[in-house]
Structures
1.
Amino acid sequence: MIDEEYRGAKQWSRDKQAVFTVIWISFLSAAVATMIFFAVFDPVELGGMLDEDLNFSRDAGYAAGFFFFWVLCALCAGVTAFLVRTAPKRDAKHRPK
Amino acid sequence: MNKPESAGMYASAEKIYPREIGGRFDKLSKLATTILLGLFYAAPWLLWDGRQAFLFDLPARKFHLLGLTLWPQDFPYLALLLIIAALSLFFFTALAGRLWCGFACPQTVWTEAFIWMEQFTEGTRSQRMKLDKAPWSITKFRKKASKQFLWITFSMWTGFTFVGYFTPVRELGIDILELSVGGSTLFWGLFYGFATYGNAGYMREQVCKYMCPYARFQSAMFDKDTLIISYDEKRGEPRGSRKRSVDPKEAGLGDCIDCQLCVQVCPTGIDIREGLQYECIACAACIDACDSIMDKMNYPRGLVRYTTEHSLKNETTRVLRPRMFVYATLLLILVSGLVIAMTSRTPVILDVIRDRNSLYREIADNFVENIYTLKIINQSNDARSFVVTVSGLENVVLDGVDGEVRVDGGGVLSLPVRVRARRDDAYGVNEILFSVVATDDSSVVMAEDSRFIGPMR
């Protein structure tokens, strides 16, 4: 009855947990990275160094930087999560008893 | 079984319908939600000296906080502030458990607000469950649509309030009314609005259970003297239903009547009677629920209550313990460090950039010349005049500055200067020192060293 309903409510699938955790934690990391990076570097000056004709607003620079960090962190976290979760389990029978 | 209405988010999970319960902690939580959300939505509209009081002006690379203006160079203060915030969280967690999670975390606060809107449009828990099971009808559509309307409007308002911390909110408000919001503003407003909608409308406590790192490691701050919400097993067991007239002692029962109300109100769907679980966000809804039943049964309140592991075992709880002193001392040191650093901060910055293109230039009468660019940043809000001097070499002369230089409030002055010294005094590499002093206040001073290069001997 009520009990059953609530036991069922606890679970997200393992895959969904992994995907959302990766997205969220890389979001937080990217926010921190963006803050530190742009406290030191001004995106406009940085763009000027790469190519003098490059014209973009600071806002666009910040946004590009943030999404760059987010994708990078998500890749890192995603691959890590994938490797950890798909690693071959040490077979119990090979383990010394 | 209930068919989840939002198939995307809950593909493999049952939907939780937290039951609404009145009570002391419910009032407290409503109060906290109202105050915190009120602050969030009101703060960007506050003015200070005719300027937006809280404005993180990213395009200008300046943060305005009340009367204070912070520059990228002030980043260490922000870092220190974040460390202090984290340490305070540890301190309060060790002291009072997950107070943050239950009452102050944005995830909790916005979820609460979204649940109010859900209750307002779809009714109580049982009405909501019935509505979700019912086939589509005009009434169901009307209820669902009005909930979505409230949720989406509120989310958009949240998104644009968030953007209002980064862009002048008054102009933004006019832009919104005129439907002429520009590119990046629109993007970030929708981005944050959508995040609010998804997090508070659908993901809710799943975020706490699966995505929040703090929820996982907070147990490291817990000890047996930390305030937790717990079921008093000794008093409650053996649980069982009974008539009000039955004396539990005679029937061999504990005080728990197994009404399941504590389970029904739990937003994370756990049973507090199974002991302390990491899913518990300490919202105290189960305390309110249980107290209301205890009142009805004429039993004393507190079968589920705020307590500590020590006091559950009838041992004494110590508030002052080594862990608290360590956290408190660290906090005190960092806070006083921040205060001292902020008060002794001079509102001028001098950067010296040596011309990279030439080492030195020999000019007539046995003099040598080096070229520099001085960047003078006036961090105060009013225009100021500065006297620039150079020292470190005998008879060194600064050329390119006529007396005082004037820098606008919050402005940056780029000043190309030539420094001359006699050739005989300046062989090889010499250390020289530039300094700027405000004319109106000699304590506003900043010095920066650089190199003066002359010919090899």
2.
Amino acid sequence: MSVVISNPALVSSELPVVRIQPAKGWVPLKLRDLWEYRELLYFLVWRDIKVRYKQTALGMSWAVIQPFFTMVVFSVFFGYLAKVPSDHIPYPLFSFAALVPWTFFASGLNQSSNSLVGSGTLISKVYFPRLIIPLASVFSGIVDFLVAFVVLLLMMFYYGFAPTINVLWLPLFLLLALVSSLGVGLWFSALNVNYRDVRYIVPFITQFWLLATPIAYSTSLLHEPWRTIYGLNPMVGVVEGFRWALLGTNTAPGPIVAVSAAAAVVILVSGAFYFRRMEKTFADVV
Amino acid sequence: MKTWNLELETVFMSDIAIKVEGLGKRYRIGANQQAYKTLKEKLNETAATPFRALRSLGGRNGHSSVGHANGHSANGHSNGRASKAPTIWAVKDVSFEINRGEVVGIIGRNGAGKSTLLKILSRITDPTEGYADIHGRIASLLEVGTGFQPELSGRENIYLNGSILGMKHAEIRRKFDEIVAFAEVEKFIDTPVKHYSSGMYVRLAFAVAAHLEPEILLVDEVLAVGDVDFQKKCLGSMQSVADSGRTVLLVSHNMALIESLCKRAILLDQGRVSSSGPTTEVIADYLSKAKLCESEELTNHPRKQARSTAWFSSIQILNRAGESSRDFRAGDELTVKLGIEAGQPILQPWIGIRLRTPTDQLICHIANREAGYQLPALSGSSEIQCQLSGLNLLPGRYIVDLVLADMLNREYDNVSGAAYFDVRESDVFQSGMPMGQGYGLVFFPSEWKLVR
């Protein structure tokens, strides 16, 4: 009997059975499936990073140029001309510390929204958990973030700011930015398959969102409880968090971050379920 | 002990790998032209029937048409495109079982549902009804080189494509040298694949796919790539996959390939299993059904796509005397007479007559524009005639497919198997030695002389 049990043929007969049948309504996220395919996620992220700046003259420097010049414009108009208060931080540093995570969020949102439509051939020819596609788009922005972050550190050095111990919280704020970006990206990417209007809505929304986020100004302009309610925009928590952790602004983000984190999680979870629900039509429509 | 193992293996190897039960897939017709909507259309729908449209925004648009298969929505006020669109069953009531280690071929005409079936089994698209159970790790090969990134090098693409096809990183690393050797691209492995010749590109893509080792492999018509030598190599690798006891489901138009690799075949016709059994019998069945196009009337001929605003209404094959005929001799004159109905004018029509063998081997496309004949815009009923003087075909049966398109390459109609004709043996060159079976498909006039 023991021979039978140790027989490899028997083991291989215990194969996993997958049932393919029509999915109705809301379907489970199947995160385990996603974990099974983590290597594919890794390769897609790696591909995006490798290909992103191919055939561009300035290459990687685009990751810096975008936030840096926005910072210059903001510093001139809001900082120098309009004299917007910046929590006693030099205005360029004040806005750049916000623009770095913002750029990560906005480009992740933009890339992931268009990711499914851009991967049409992949979707119609191979099976894998479709969530991987927008996920890879958001993750691949991390390299750009790191490059811009180095410039931010240089600027801090230039203005004589040393990071405090609070900097240990920074990865959490980055995670919050990632969750927000992915959450909105999931909604838009799934909508984009059926409604190509999304392609035109996204740039508009990012622009709008940029102004609705305290990048050019500070949340200290608001009074409680509005300040905390403002945290419903998850990027408020991210931006305030970055400033607090790096520049030591006294706007300790406690309740704001809690509200922002909750909002981001709601967007992510609802986005993931909506995505899964729409997923079954992707291959037929994309 | 050795024999014990073998016995056990045969016991366990004979259980089921794929079980398909009542599988069906419905598409909305015209899904290719109007696949995605713009929000404006959606909003119009919403304005007309707020509740319904809102619900479909939440993901039911794939299903909202389900109850109204034949056109009009139950809700008379509905303005929705989705609910009005007629639907078509690409696959319907398909049931079969495939045992572990079996190599099964799926055959059928274009549009019979073969590719849709493979897409459902590979989990790319959802079925509308029924289910399929897959026992074991499955990999599907519906295209070679899926996800190839032209900017990346051959090496990088092997890893990328391998992982897209479901290979693990370690597995790719182990087989890397083998893949490169198989593809014969050692020298260019670090060159971006955009600089590859198309042959090298395809070889590399196939090499990755050939090293997949799933328990079940689904393959769709991917072997017709590369040069002849490489094709032979691919066939060899397919053969070894088949011999290694893995389960393979193979879709192909190449009957010879199906016959040599598969013991069993399934014939699909208009989405349904029309016959199933030993390969030779199923192929014979397929060939006998391929001659079903007896009628000259085409309006109701089965099509893959629904008829659009213009279509072929009739076809006649005429002989030299102008009589309708299906019997010709090599070298004869043959005229194809087509009736076309156009609801809206077709500008600069392009009419393609496709000649092929019953096993789907293309012989040639005959088309008006390529022949230097520009048709005026067609509207209403028209009749068009195409005369072939001197039929360069050797004895056998030939099938005629028709395509109707316009100046913008918009396709209006596509009829597979619109008509057939037989070419009989004849002594074309009056040599006293007629050319019959075994001389190939076409003949050429030739002049011979002794030079030295």
